[in-house]
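Minimal example, chain plus glutamine.
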Amino acid sequence: MQLQSKLPDVGTTIFTVMSSLAVQHNAVNLGQGFPDFAMNNELIALVNKAMQNGNNQYVHSNGLPVLREQIAAKYAKLYQSNIDAEKQITITPGGTYAIYTALTTVLQPNDEVIVFEPAYDSYIPNIVINGAKPVLISLAYPNYSIPWQEVKNKITAKTKMIIINSPHNPTGAVLTKQDIIELRNIVANTNIFILSDEVYEHLIFDDLQHQSILRYPDLLERSFVCFSFGKTYHCTGWKIGYCISSPTLMNEFRKVHQFNSFSIDSPKQFALAEYIQNEEAYLTLGKTMQQKRDYFRTLMQQTPFKIIPSHGSYFECYSYEGLSNLNDKDFAIYLTKNYGVATIPVSAFYKNGEDNKAIRFCFAKKESTLEKAVEKLALFKKDL
Ligand code: GLN
């Protein structure tokens, strides 16, 4: 059989590659982003309760109405937003799916999408599979801010969308109010859509404020904003997220969604509808996770790696400049095999493999896991 690949340049995602390598070499896995500590027991009990109560059949394709109402209530409280749960929110099987669906809803062949690199590795394949073209802009190393003048220069008549992601994966960079002003100026009086990946919305540190698009009703009119329960409630394997948009755009989003996954795990939606009312759970998350980041930072001082500070997400990148001549992919493999610690090479987030000799660590782990990893990394010997 002959098959013309729709994604000829795509291999296996780096997250699968590094997690498999970690298992193979029995390494501490600080690569793929997932917590290794237990999720909340009460939330687990609520799923059990929903199943026992017989909530095991399809719910509405847009998502369980009461969950959507609770999501709208959450953001009304957080940002004084006025979101119509019936028309503007759709529950999805994870944040990545929400992103894919938003891109598929909007993109026509030959459209251009502005993507900031390093970029989460699903964005570009999701654009390419829709026949559109990623227009790449590098975030300024090492603070990974957006070079807005370059964005202005790269806007053309074909620009259909701009993807933003704050807090940012893999760098942990966070957008500021000034960034939002720049963005607003660029899209004003254009037909450019925004895709805002906010899956790390509550993982924000150092007293910074998350600049959600939901704070800006004028921008929400042209945006798809994507979220993840997995990141907020330490259950990445549940694969449940949601997308918020304007009523008109969401109507189109749902046309794509209904013939893809159709609907999402019912018992978990019932459980989340109840648990989301516990504000403490998400309001304290930034503080808890910052403690982990800070603990990891302190431990990492025992190693020769140089920090590239993050302010959000559950990642922090470190430079190995001057420690090895290997490219970052080979270096990540070398660290896994020889020192027993798996990480993610940052070049995996660049289409053309730009290599700043940086690797990403996930610190959403038990203290004992972080200690075990750093104990191994402290043994690192220069390899030049
Ligand atoms: N978002 C997670 C990360 O960046 C991984 C998700 C995935 O494996 N697809 O590590």
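Residues 205 and 308 are 15 Å apart (CA to CA). The longest strand covers residues 159-165.
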